[in-house]
Amino acid sequence: MSQNPVPCSAAAETLPHRESQGSDLALFFRKFLEKGRTISSAVPSSRTMALKMLSAIDFDRPSTIIELGAGTGAITEHIVDRLRPHHRFVAVENDADFVAVLRRRFPKQMILHADATRLDEPLAHLGTASVRYILCGLPTPALPKRGVVRLARWAQDVLEPDGVFLQLTVVPMIYKPFYDRLFGHVRFQMVWRNFPPGGVYHCRFAS
Ligand SMILES: C[S@@+](CC[C@H](N)C(=O)[O-])C[C@H]1O[C@@H](n2cnc3c(N)ncnc32)[C@H](O)[C@@H]1O
Rounded to 5 degrees, what are φ and ψ at 132? Predict the structure, then answer.
């Protein structure tokens, strides 16, 4: 695991992340061809998908927000645009090339190069004990079963009582029973404007 030397800042970026993303798109597609199911989508999420993921977040409240599987930053850029000093934000990605893109685009943010199913230690180092929002871009159903169990246990440990785990998908509704079993309370929102069309699972643990 490695991380940015710069501590997480809630200050808005000065927009280096708005520059042309052509080469990042090509990188994403190449990774999809190389890695298939661990990337799961041939192109990054659309703006509509990103905004649907963010729709559950109350940015007026102080909170810790963690993004898992940030890729080239399609969701990250919309989070970063809305961060205020009362937020703490950490993006996690395990692909070194994507981490390089994220650090270039979001130089002021905490980008963890780590396996998102093994976050206990890295987050303890950062002093992050409780989290209100987990935005998950991981291909969760395709992860090894032990990784899914570790991810769910970690989420249950760190999520605040009113916290929510937001999971994006490009195979709408298919995995609803899978997320029902993991979390207990799950609501699905369709997102047509994405390639391919997908959606967001809003997951909460049954108390
Ligand atoms: C479907 S892509 C989503 C990328 C981005 N969030 C988006 O919406 O465009 C899945 C991402 O999860 C990353 N990933 C897969 N397994 C991971 C793991 N165990 N730990 C961290 N990242 C992982 C992949 O490298 C990829 O960037």
Answer: -95, -35
Q: Which residues contact 192 (CB under 8 A, 6 or more apart)?
A: 48
Q: Is 133 in the pocket of ligand 1 (CB under 6 A)?
A: no
Residue nearest to atom 4 of ligand 1 (CA): 71
SS3 45: coil
Lookup result for tokens 């009362």:
86
- Amino acid symbol at 47: R
Q: Which amino acid is at 49?
A: M
Does ligand 1 have an atom closer than 6 angstroms to the CB of 77?
A: no
pTM over 0.85: yes
Q: Which of 38, 54, 169, 201 to mutate to test the pocket of ligand 1 (most atoms within 8 A of CB)?
A: 38
Pick the CATH number of 44-205 from 3.30.360.10, 3.40.50.2000, 3.40.50.150, 3.40.50.300: 3.40.50.150
pLDDT by residue, tens only, the chain of 207 residues: 444 433 333 334 445 555 546 888 999 999 999 998 888 888 999 999 999 999 999 999 999 999 999 999 999 999 999 999 999 999 999 999 999 999 999 999 999 999 999 999 999 999 888 999 999 999 999 999 999 999 999 999 999 999 999 999 999 999 999 999 999 999 999 999 999 999 999 999 987
